[in-house]
Amino acid sequence: MARPQPPPRPWRPSGLVSLLTDYGLDDPYAGIVRGVLHRDAPHLRDVIDLTHGVPPGDVGTGAFLLERSWSHFPAGTVHVAVVDPGVGGERAILIVEARGHVLLGPDNGLLAPLIESEPLALVRRADERAPVRGASATFHGRDRFAPLAARLVEGDPPASFGERSEAWVRLERPAPERSPDGRVTAEVIHVDRFGNLITNLPFQWLAEAGGPEWRARWRCRVGTETLPLVRTYSDAPEGTAVALVDSYERLELAVRDGSAASTLALGRGATVVFEPSAGAAGKRRKKGGA
Q1: Residue 222's pLDDT is what?
Q2: Mean residue pLDDT across the chain
Q3: Between the CA of residue 133 and those of 45, 137, 241, 247, 268, what are the distances in Å?
Q4: Which of 94, 98, 76, 78 is nearest to 20 (CA)?
Q5: How far is CA 196 from CA 19, 22, 221, in A?
């Protein structure tokens, strides 16, 4: 079934560009992209470095960070996302319009979670009308993405550079699983610089019963460890491992004043189980008449 498409509306750039890449800061790549933007877009107000710390070629991490971050910017922002292990190959460049923003990225799954979470997102594939500055087959951030972003900042409409498309590369991502006994199995999908272990479990899966005390109805198991659910880091004693809702609205494991990754010896791909506490399970059995 084709996605519903919003009616065309004028593009109103704010003069802001965000950058998400795996370039790091040891080399000049990120700075060069910023330089091209300032060179080609006289009306550029600011370039915001969302992050250049995506692990090299890690499309999944880049996709997660972008999908959870872009909407915090004002409408009219151009978001440039470059995690592009297939640079120079046959992959297309996508131009995505969503809620008054425009996002640019390689068609390798990097933009897929964002597109799928926005029912009215409009997807285009950049064609020969998109600007190209330079002939490098290894640095499209400089030679293709930045020049295209600059034209958008200057007011050129996204429709000037590509036709609508319903085809884009999907990204295979692990999904949480519910068990008949009420348990929810999640997976660690990201480890931030504080050592927090961020899972793929939206907090709504556990909070759906409602009420301020929903955390008391669950406990977290990691191997032989049992972790309580708390509201904030300050609710845990120093050095204690806990589970809580993070700023991405996912369940994460954290250690107060420490690193959960080091303390629990876990990383990406680790399994985390959330199960009803004994009291909550008993209440459900009583309610059901068993």
Answers
A1: 95
A2: 92
A3: 22, 11, 50, 38, 38
A4: 78
A5: 23, 20, 16
Q: Do residues 228 and 241 make contact, with C-beta atoms less than 8 angstroms apart?
A: no
Contact 161, 95 (CB under 8 A): yes
Look up residue 133 and give its DSSP letter.
-
128 exposure class (CB count in 10 Å sphere: 0-12, 13-18, 19+):
exposed
Residue 117 sits at φ, ψ, to 5 deg, of -85, -10
pLDDT digits 0-9 by tens, 22-77: 999 999 999 999 999 999 999 999 999 999 999 999 999 999 999 999 999 999 99
Could you give the percent of the chain with pLDDT greater than 70?
Answer: 93
pTM of the entire structure? 0.89
Could you give all domains of the chain from N- to C-terminal order, each with its CATH number?
16-164 (3.40.50.10790), 177-288 (2.40.30.90)
